[in-house]
Structures are given as structure tokens and as C-alpha cells.
Write a structure and sequence with these properties.
308 residues; alpha/beta; 12 helices; four-stranded parallel β-sheet; five-stranded parallel β-sheet; binds norvaline; Rossmann fold; binds phosphoric acid mono(formamide)ester
Length: 308
């Protein structure tokens, strides 16, 4: 069964095939309105459950639109409205859902929930973000980089800020797609060692640097994300803001990167905190393409999951 749970657990050649398929499907839709179906309807007759235990704008809408463009149908469910939030086990939920739907996308808190869903479901399960990783986002980010700058292999990606779930999937992608990765942020918010080791074992050069300007030097891509994630306690907000302020991505920091460097942010962004509006709306930024590419990347992921 092709579950799409994480970048490091998906074969590198399969990841490459998914990116190529996404690019081809995007190309084939040029000039079409969003509601127009694709020429091919590989999800015709398929039902997809999109389950959210956390808020979402991009993941929710891009999966829903993507399924419909490919001829399938969706139901968008919130975890709290399901028995999932009221004591029914994940395993039992997985068994029941598998009798109704052909594919499950789940955004949740602890990654054990998605792992258990995948273990007991008899249909593919896609990780739509956990506290620990966000693989669909990074597939869209790789697609976006390559659209603008060609192969990402051998490039230098710099992550500034919190070594969070999105950073984790980026590090895994460094190993799988063969690019170098520098993290710059305070030591207490370093990415997990496991992901650093994974990328290094695959041959990527991974650096952890405390000085943001030195880290960004020569970067092909600068990435950041919110300083406080959905699973973080709001009580940490003030301390994190103080710790992370030196790692704000602003014009001065972007000036140290390569002149043709790109800037990415998975969004939602907190303007003037982790990134300034001047960078978000400036010449390096590809954030809107990045958001659009969630749609194309996830369509390719769903096709891969279903083998259609
Ligand atoms: N980037 C991302 O996953 O956005 P949403 O939280 O809006 O889905
Ligand atoms: N790190 C963020 C990503 C949101 C898409 C969070 O988990 O809240």
C-alpha cells in the first residue's frame, strides 16, 4: 500500500517521479479555470476523506480542489466532530473509514495518530501535517524551486528560525533530493538530530549555525516559518519571539544570499515577525507559487497513492 507518510520513508526515485508528474499535470492545465476538470479523470468514482484536527487554509482547499479536478469527490471532516475526538480508537476509525472512502488525508497532532491510521486502514493515508513533519508542503517546495531554478540537487538551502515540523521535512528532503541544508536559529530550537543524521547519511552537507548572516551566505533558497506552531503552547510565545528575532528574514539578511536566491514560507506568515513584508512581497519571494504548488504536488501524491 502506498501511504504518503513522510519524505524519509518514501523511496527517493518515487519522490522524483511524483515531482515530475506534478509538473506535467500543472503544465497540462495551463490557461484553465480552477473549476475545470483535468483531461484525465484518474479519481473518477473515488471518494477522499480530508480530516483536520488543526486549522488549515491551504491544505484543506488545495486537496479538495485537486480531488475535484481529477474527477473524484471529497468530504472534509473536523476531528472534533468525529468520534475520533470522543474516545473511539484510531484503529477502529481507520477500519470503518476504509469501508467508505478510497483515500484518507489527515492533519493531526501526534505522529502516532497518523501511523496508527496507516497501520489499520486498508486504503492509503496521506500526512497533511503532524507536530513532527509536513511532507506535502516540502514536495510543493521542491516543485517550486525546480520550476524557477532547475534541479535542486547540489543547491544550498538555508532555514532560519524554529527547527520545527516543516524544517524536519525539508531536512529529510535534503537527503532524498541531494541538496545541502543549513539551519540557523537558537540551540534550543535546533531540528531533531535524527533528521540531521538522515540527511548526512544520504550525503548532504548539513550545517547548524548560530550566526544568521554567516549561514545565509551563498544560499540559493532561504526559508522560514512561523515562530510558534499550532502545537506549541502560546505561553512560549514571548520567549520564542525574543529568541528568534535575530533570525528574522529581512532585506539585510536576503542581501547576503546569492543575488538570484529564492525566498519561501509555507504560510500562514506573521508579517514583520519571522519575515518582513519587504521580503514576502519582494523580488526573491515565490510564496504564492509555493502555495499554488500544494495543489499540483498533492494531486501527484494522490495519484501515486492510488496507483492511477
Ligand atoms: N502551509 C500550510 O499547510 O497551510 P495551512 O495550514 O493553511 O494548510
Ligand atoms: N509549523 C507550522 C506550519 C503550518 C502550516 C505549524 O505546525 O503550525
Amino acid at each position: 500500500m502506498n501511504h504518503f507518510l513522510d519524505i524519509h520513508t518514501t523511496d527517493a526515485a518515487e519522490l522524483r517521479a511524483i515531482i515530475d508528474s506534478a509538473a506535467a499535470m500543472k503544465q497540462a492545465r495551463q490557461g484553465r479555470h480552477k473549476g475545470e476538470p483535468d483531461d484525465q479523470q484518474p479519481l473518477k468514482g473515488r471518494m477522499v476523506a480530508l480530516i483536520f484536527e488543526k486549522p488549515s487554509t491551504r491544505t484543506r482547499v488545495s486537496f479538495d480542489v485537486g480531488v475535484r479536478q481529477m474527477g473524484g469527490q471529497t468530504m472534509v471532516l473536523s476531528g472534533s466532530e468525529m468520534q475520533l475526538g470522543h474516545g473511539e480508537t484510531i484503529a477502529d476509525t481507520a477500519r470503518v473509514l476504509s469501508r467508505y472512502v478510497d483515500l484518507i488525508m489527515l492533519r493531526t497532532f501526534d505522529e502516532s495518530v497518523i501511523q496508527e491510521m496507516a497501520e489499520y486502514a486498508s486504503v492509503p493515508v496521506i500526512n497533511g501535517l503532524t507536530n513532527r513533519t509536513h511532507p506535502c508542503q516540502i514536495m510543493a517546495d521542491v516543485l517550486t524551486f525546480e520550476e524557477h531554478r532547475g534541479p535542486i540537487a547540489g543547491k544550498k538551502v538555508v532555514w532560519a528560525g524554529d527547527g520545527n515540523n516543516v524544517c524536519a521535512s525539508f531536512l529529510q528532503a535534503a537527503g532524498q533530493f541531494g541538496f545541502d541544508f543549513t539551519f540557523t536559529g537558537p540551540q534550543t530550537l535546533d531540528p531533531e538530530d535524527a533528521w540531521v543524521r538522515f540527511a548526512r547519511d544520504k550525503g548532504s552537507e548539513v550545517r547548524i549555525m548560530r550566526d544568521p548572516a554567516a549561514a545565509v551566505e551563498g544560499a540559493d533558497l532561504v526559508v522560514t516559518d512561523t515562530w510558534v506552531s499550532m502545537h506549541d503552547s502560546q505561553s512560549t510565545k514571548e520567549r520564542r519571539h525574543n529568541q528568534l528575532r535575530p533570525y528574522q528574514v529581512n532585506e539585510a539578511l536576503m542581501a547576503v544570499a546569492r543575488p538570484d536566491a529564492l525566498f519561501m514560507h509555507c504560510l500562514p506568515a506573521h508579517r514583520e515577525d519571522e519575515v518582513t513584508s519587504a521580503v514576502m512581497d519582494g523580488p526573491h519571494s515565490v510564496i504564492w507559487d509555493e502555495a499554488e504548488n500544494r495543489l499540483h504536488a498533492q494531486k501527484a501524491i494522490m495519484r501515486w497513492c492510488l496507483g492511477v
